[in-house]
Amino acid sequence: MRRHPFAPSALLTGLVLLGLAAVFLLDAAGEVSLAPAAAVPLTCAGLGLAALGAVTSRMVRGRSARRSGQAAPPPAAASGDHRVDGQ
Question: Which residues of 56-67 are buried (b: 16+ CB within 10 A; e: fewer)?
C-alpha cells in the first residue's frame, strides 16, 4: 500500500461528521432533542472547524518547508508548442 502524508484536516472532518452522525442517531432514538433549525448551523460550524484545521495545517507545512530550504520547483518553461500530436 502506498504511503500518504498525514492529513489532520481529513481526520478532523471525519471526526466532526462522526460526531454529527452520533447526534442525529441519538435524536432519532429519542435520547436527545435536536431542533431541525439547529442541524444546518451545527453542520456548518463543524465543517468550518475542519476547514480551519486544513488552512492551519497548510500554513504550518508551508512554513516548515521554507525553513528547511525545500522550495517549490520552478514552473516549467513554456515552449510555445502546444500541439497534441508532437509533430
Answer: ebeeeeeeeeee
Distance CA 41, CA 53 (A): 18
How far is residue 42's CA from residue 30's CA, in Å, rounded to a whole number? 19
pTM for this predicted structure: 0.55
How far apart (Å, rounded) are the C-alpha atoms in residues 47 and 54?
A: 10
Return the closest-CA partner of residue 61 out of 46, 51, 72.
72
Question: Could you give the CA distance from residue 21 to residue 15 in angstroms, rounded to a whole number?
Answer: 10
* Residue-wise pLDDT tens digits, 64-82: 666 666 655 555 555 555 5
Angle between the N-to-C axes of helices 8-29 and 36-67, in degrees from 0 to 180, rounded to the nearest 10:
170
Asked if 16 and 10 touch (Cβ cutoff 8 Å), the reply is no
